Amino acid sequence: MNSDDAVGARHVRVVLVDDHRMFRTGVQAEIGRTEETGVEVVGEAADVDQAVTVITATRPEVVLLDVHLPGGGGVEVLRRCAPLMGPVENPVRFLALSVSDAAEDVIGVIRGGARGYVTKTITGTDLVNSVFRVQEGDAVFSPRLAGFVLDAFASTDAPPLDEDLDRLTQREREVLRLIARGYAYKEIAKQLFISVKTVESHVSAVLRKLQLSNRHELTRWATARRLV
Amino acid sequence: MPAAATPRAAASEEQSPRKLYRSADGRFLGGVARGLAGHLGLPVVWVRLAFLALFFAQGLGALLYAVFWIVVPLGVGGTSAAQPKSMFEILPDGRRKLRKPDRGQVFALVALVVGAAIFIGNVNMGLAGTGRYIWPMLLIGVGLVLVWRQADNARRARWTEIGRRRRVLQAARGVAGVALVGLGLTVFVVVRGSAAQFGNVLTASIAVVAGVGLLVGPWLVRMTQDLSEERLMRIRAQERAEVAAHVHDSVLHTLTLIQRNADDGGEVRRLARAQERELRAWLYRPEGRGKDEAEEPDSLAEAVKKAAAEVEDHHGVPIEIVVVGDCPLDEKLDAQLQAAREAMVNAAKYGGEGGAVQVYAEVEGRSVFVSVRDRGPGFDLDAVPDDRMGVRGSIIGRMKRHGGTARLRTAPEGGTVVELEMERVPEAGVGAQG
Hints:
The structure holds 2 protein chains of 2 kinds.
Chain A: E1 12-17, H1 21-31, H2 34-37, E2 39-45, H3 48-58, E3 62-66, H4 73-80, H5 82-85, E4 93-98, H6 103-112, E5 117-119, H7 124-135, H8 143-154, H9 170-180, H10 185-192, H11 196-211, H12 215-224
Parallel strand pairs in A: 1-2, 1-3, 3-4, 4-5
Chain B: H1 2-14, E1 22-23, H2 32-40, H3 44-56, H4 60-71, E2 74-75, E3 88-90, E4 96-98, H5 103-122, H6 131-159, H7 164-192, H8 195-260, H9 265-283, H10 300-315, E5 319-324, H11 331-351, E6 357-364, E7 367-373, H12 390-401, E8 405-410, E9 416-423, H13 428-433
Parallel strand pairs in B: 1-2, 5-6
Antiparallel strand pairs in B: 3-4, 6-7, 7-9, 8-9
Helix pairs in contact in B: 2-3, 3-4, 3-5, 6-7, 8-9, 9-10, 10-11, 11-12
């Protein structure tokens, strides 16, 4: 469907949302060489209003979203773009990109519906890989984020949770633990003798459970962790 | 007063125009007389006598005094503050002795007594006559004076910290003042009318109070709001100043160093990492912990972070830390931390070229797990000569001595993984209770 298919390359349309022009320029230079990376930057935005306008107009496949933005932050962008993420055709997927790895920032955007969270120290190659993984519907976890999730679910002094609460399976925890230890998906697959696809589906399941199915659970989970 | 104009003019010539303040030192009531005396350059006694004399002109003196008290702010100044503050003076051996009153004060007191005597002689003080107005009024007056002075003292306490004993005294004074006013009002009501009228009077009073409240209330609320807003702004400004100071001190300093070392990539990275960590710690520090308080960590998470930060600073290799759970440190965990630190140093030294070193610590129930991973060339324990004790002694041996385990292996995609596992010491509190 794209001209790039002719050369067998993947192609993804990306919108950059960050209030620092220099950072946008840097990311653009790093990943925006479409022939090499398969990433095409179709729009940029510097604040919440601009972001919503640009995303609605261009309908990219992936949005690289800064967490701290003038006008309400990345969470506000996620809230206002919620209709584009839902069960629609060609959903827009969000990958949070931030200098902060504080728990409230991370959990905030994940709850808002972002499919992943990477810090700005990430290398260009890793960022491109993350963008594609998000485009394919998988989740991208940084070790730090995996640590937060583990911390939240593994904590023993948390109040007893309902049986029916969507909890992490043993395998999912194992995968998370390896991510937290800095392993790449490929390495985890090798270590656990499973396929990379299985690892990715485990990670997606974790993210789905982290977003939780109803507000009640969410509130309880968050208050138990003192995140809200 | 033509007499007053001359000294005032003379005074303003030699120094900048003075504002009239009530004197906080050596005052009887509100410090009005002393302040005025200081302002006009007259002896205090004269001013006091003037007020006393005016008092007999249908109480004009009292009215004037009250107006001065309300309008003129309390300040330092007045005539020489050498006036003794207390009736007592502290002797060198610590005992308190009644201070010898100076002549001016004695004169003032005598005048006061004489004046009062004349006043009492003029009006019939019996309960049947005018007295039933006078006594309650007097009670109310004394009470009001006490409360007002109290307010002044509260203001003064902001300038100078006063001891606890004096604060108790002040509180007692305030309470006494309120009690006196209450008593005066009651007597006023009870003596004037019969008890039957008491209810009516009470209702009327409440109505008046409510009315005044309605009139003054909004203004009072607005003033309080303005005040708290102003205080908030001040706090914000202070915070901003603190941030600015910090940014100036450390961040600008580091940026200068980075500019100077621009060609040395490793050094620039090291400086940037160290600065980033410091800034983060400073921005997200827990309340009430100053940046200069370098305290020993007492929990596992803190200790791991600290050790990693030190290794990172020392070797210039970024270390990414993930800590899951937390627990207090004990001697076994101390040993584990030492081993982990050694592993970090090794990873930074030999495996740092491949990228960041990853440190992962997890508290799992009773045991603590730490893994240190680098992406370097890998490591084969068997290939290391037996006399090299670094890994065997400081990591494996140390863990074994304390009852833990250490494993070294090569990660699937290259690099070395050191895994340390240690049981925690059972908590003493549980045993003591059982």
